[in-house]
Amino acid sequence: MAFWDNLFPGRGDDFDFGSAANSIDLTRRRPTVSLTKQGAATGNLRVNLSWRMRTSDIEGRRRQTGGLLRHPTRLFKPEEVQAHTQGVVNVDLDLGCLYELADGSKGVVQPLGGFLGHTNEPPYVKLSGDDRFGAPSGETIFVNLDHKDEIKRLLFFVYIYDQTPAFDRTHAKVTLYPSNGPRIEIELDEHAPQARSCAVFSVENVKGELTVRREVRFVYGFQAELDRLYGWGLQWGRGYKTKT
Hints:
Strand content: 35-45%
Oligomer: single chain
Helix content: under 10%
Protein name: Tellurium resistance
Shape: globular
CATH superfamily: sav2460 like domains
Number of domains: 1
Radius of gyration: 19 Å
Mean pLDDT: 77
CATH topology: Lipoxygenase-1
CATH architecture: Sandwich
CATH class: Mainly Beta
């Protein structure tokens, strides 16, 4: 807790500012932020998934002995590398979004099944592509908030595809880039070594106000289990990715 929390115990903030002035961290203590109140309920909301791994978690890792001789303290601090490299192409985290529109229609936007969505027509949610092999930009979903009145609720989730490391070894972060105001960051920092999916955050339209809520709820199944938790009521079947 920062020292100013003691000086101003009655503050009404519902989020924590990150180390940079242009970021907000959603945490257990401060889980919500209003896009409407910060003037960001229009334009495109960009949602990005990125991740990294500790090199000690990568099978067959080679230590750079020369570097260790120059910096012996590295023996006690595993080096962190971006997961978007050739050395960890087996990592396959996917970003998806369950949606419910004001007219009652429901569905999902995700790489599995090729449900990529649309930005200028329902569901006004679109996945930019499946980052299967790694890229600096990670995976991104766009939400067209110019149609916010047609959106009732959204649930963004991350799941681990077949034969990939567990969440406790894959340090993932979801970042929201609104059209106005600071970016919003959510770390998937809970310990759930056997989990396969995680509900990261929700967006709800309540009487015209769009509110982002941190969820970070890990489950041991896939989309069907998230569906049951949040009452979407969709029918699910086994999905596969096309090979490239």
